[in-house]
Design a protein that fits this description.
This protein is α+β, with helices and mostly antiparallel strands and 257 residues long. 26% of the residues lie in helices and 23% in strands. The chain has one domain: 2-Layer Sandwich (BirA Bifunctional Protein, domain 2), CATH 3.30.930. Helix 3 packs across helix 5. The chain starts with 5 loop residues before the first strand and ends in a 29-residue tail after the last helix. The relative contact order is 0.23.
């Protein structure tokens, strides 16, 4: 990782469908040699429920909410009041779990600076639970009290890896209850979003040896993305009639596959 050029895309607030299509396009650009390794932060606006790439069943929210499919694995994630990140890079010579743990180091180091030490979870991912944040598997980062703070998942495209993650900062208790049918977990608050981004970017600079200056997409790149959006390769987002369909749970873990 050290010495590999990186590009840092600053915070982008947009719909879930655009965010997921953008990650798919960025992966394609990286694989074609037109985009270096990349870190970006983003938020879903409006709030949305994202599903893992292989997820075959999901809850029926008690409120109307967008539902999109991620290009990565894992279970359903409610995106409201959270900070999302994506990493795209190429890797040869290590196992995928080892790469996953190494990429997560910028999260661990950044949160340590914020006074919230994190470690990998220990729970099994087996079972019928659809909510990503109801479990803390070895692919998740938990605080000293064992509470899950960051959920992440990967998908590999040859030697290129896309890692996406969600960091709940200010989730709405009512929306959480409506989406999952249970109360929001009682966890200690995290620092404001700007401080979290600053700490994570600083950790990336240290670990990756790149200044990570903000470099948003240009107008030309947005135009190229718009042209390619229909060819993003993502599975279609589920239709409203499909929500909560009574099929067997697919065993979707947040572990890299």
């Amino acid at each position: 990782m050290m010495g590999v050029p990186w590009r840092y895309l600053p915070l982008l607030s947009a719909s879930g469908s655009l965010q997921m299509a953008l990650d798919a396009w960025l992966v394609a650009e990286h694989r074609a040699g037109r985009m270096p390794a990349l870190l970006r932060f983003y938020q879903f606006s409006p709030p949305a429920l994202s599903l893992g790439y292989h997820q075959r069943a999901w809850p029926t929210p008690a409120v109307a909410i967008d539902c999109v499919r991620r290009p990565t694995g894992g279970r359903a994630v409610l995106h409201q009041g959270d900070l999302c990140y994506s990493l795209i890079t190429s890797w040869i010579g290590q196992s995928r779990p080892a790469v996953y743990r190494q990429l997560c180091q910028f999260l661990i180091q950044g949160f340590a600076v914020l006074g919230c030490p994190l470690s990998f979870g220990t729970e099994t991912a087996a079972g019928r639970e659809a909510n990503c944040f109801s479990l803390s598997t070895p692919a998740d980062l938990v605080d000293s009290a064992g509470q899950k703070r960051i959920g992440s998942a990967q998908r590999w495209f040859g030697t290129t890896v896309l890692q996406q993650g969600s960091i709940p900062l200010q989730p709405d208790p009512d929306l959480w209850q409506a989406a999952w049918g249970r109360p929001l977990p009682d966890v200690s608050p995290l620092p404001p979003q700007d401080q979290v981004i600053e700490a994570l970017v600083a950790a990336g600079r240290t670990l990756w040896g790149d200044p990570l200056w903000p470099h948003p997409l240009t107008e030309e790149e947005w135009a190229q993305f718009s042209q390619a959006q229909s060819l993003s390769g993502l599975p279609p987002s589920p239709a409203p009639a499909e929500l909560g369909r009574p099929v067997d749970w697919h065993c979707c873990t947040d572990l890299p596959v």
